[in-house]
Amino acid sequence: MIDDMLRTPEAIRDAERWTAHNYHPLPVVISSAEGCWLTDVDGRRYLDCLAGYSALNFGHRHPTLIAAAHAQLDRLTLTSRAFIHDQFADFCRELAELCGKDLVLPMNTGAEAVETGIKVARKWGYQVKGVAPGQANIVVAEGNFHGRTTTIVSFSTDSDARADFGPYTPGFTVVPYGDLAALTAAIDENTVAVLIEPIQGEQGVVVPPEGYLPGVRRVCTEQNVLFIADEIQSGLGRTGDTFACDHENVTPDMYLLGKALGGGIVPVSAVAANADVLGVLRPGQHGSTFGGNPLACAVATEVVRLLATGEFQRRSTELGARLHAGLRSLIGRGLVAVRGRGLWAGLDIDPTLMSGREACERLAERGVLAKDTHGATIRLAPPLVITEEEIDHAPPQLPAPLAG
Ligand SMILES: *Cc1c(COP(=O)(O)O)cnc(C)c1O
Fold it and tell me: What number does the ligand 1 atom closest to the CA of 148 have?
């Protein structure tokens, strides 16, 4: 096929013409997908090593999830929370059981789950802990990514995410990630919560030092502060356990979930916590028109059931070991460092060779789609349904682009 006949350049031009430029997508135009594979408008196939930032943990169009969505589309799609629908209770109960918590509060996007967590923690602080009116503060970590709302970007340390979006929401204290002493020192009598990612995904799959998460748990318990774990990207099987906190046997007071919860089909997020925390909300104090809708619940219930089998966590552990071994063998050959857990890896490329963006463009030419972050870092997070053969397909593609 000669280039002029390809549909890709035209489709890219149209996409750029009609949208705000708040993204810089790779120059591919996808039209269909199945499992770990994407197909573009010209019929080229790519191995998906981003998986929608872990929204596609179960791969594209997992048959169980698609069947649940189809069946629900034919019965009932939306009621609003003004009425109870028949998909609601099962979803909430099964997710609460997966999390080992009393209650869940369903929302749609990850940012909404974070906002919910912040609101609940503040209300808990005033009503249960007895913090003076208007004084509640929440301790967060440098390099965080919790979403894009005005409150959330207020405590971002990424200037692209934050600059020119003020005035900023007060009530947050930022401390270095992985530094328990700094976190402990930042807590005062008005601190209602510590909000952290157990692994910082957007920052480049940064794993905190061993003992950090148990330390955060201990300090939060001692100081009567809620430990909120943003497991929106790290949770639901990605790291080889149901939650990234599980690796160190840590149970936070609140889980924030999203991304994979919607099975790659609909946006579904949730907060899970015990009744002494989530119980502070009364009717009218928080909500969402689409949160917990029948379609979302039907799909997400099947997501929870897939996770309850443990199969995906096991796959992530076993195949993750294979992925990391393959990647570690490239250290010194264009790669400077490899981090991560399970089927999740952050790779630092030698910055004198090329940027992360350039590496991702070259990988795309070789049929592997991944996403760069912060200069010379690439993230790999393939769907958990990836096979050994497919895993082995990705790392060999890496040195070639790095070599130029
Ligand atoms: C993606 C993400 C969010 C925000 O989720 P959206 O659905 O994009 O609003 C929050 N926290 C973490 C850790 C994330 O990875």
Answer: 9
